[in-house]
Automatic annotation (TrEMBL):
Protein name, UniProt field: DMBT1 protein
UniProt entry keywords in alphabetical sequence: Disulfide bond, Signal
Domain named ZP: residues: 1-109
UniProt source species: Dicaeum eximium
InterPro entries according to UniProt: ZP-C (IPR055355), ZP-C_dom (IPR042235), ZP_dom (IPR001507)
Length: 116
């Protein structure tokens, strides 16, 4: 476990360990849950499809393509739960393949009207 105070800035890094130097990483979606084995029942969305869902969530510059850095302010689930667990989806793409999902950034999908 990693202990932090409420509203403390929390910085994270996802690193790809591969012999292929031609890869890059992108943090697509991150959610938090008070239960380490259930990320569906009670969750808090930090980011989705590369877009910040939480106003404190931010991406930070990275020293290399195989490292993604991000952060947010620490929070709790209404004092009923002593811990918060994170689950992040990280995408791996070819470096400088600008048509790949890694280079699209925030992708917000709008619902269309189903009327005829």
């Amino acid at each position: 476990p990693y202990y932090v105070d409420m509203n403390q800035n929390l910085f994270l890094q996802a690193s790809l360990h591969s012999s292929d130097q031609n890869l890059t990483v992108f943090v697509d979606t991150c959610v938090a849950s008070p239960n380490s084995s259930d990320f569906r029942t009670l969750v808090y969305e930090l980011s989705k499809s590369g877009c910040a869902s939480d106003k404190t969530y931010a991406l930070f510059p990275s020293p290399r393509a195989d490292v993604a850095r991000f952060g947010f302010n620490a929070f709790s689930f209404v004092n009923r739960f002593p811990s918060v667990f994170l689950r992040c989806e990280v995408l791996v793409c070819r470096y400088q393949d600008y048509s790949s999902r890694c280079y699209q950034g925030c992708v917000s999908r709008f619902k269309r009207n189903a009327d005829s």
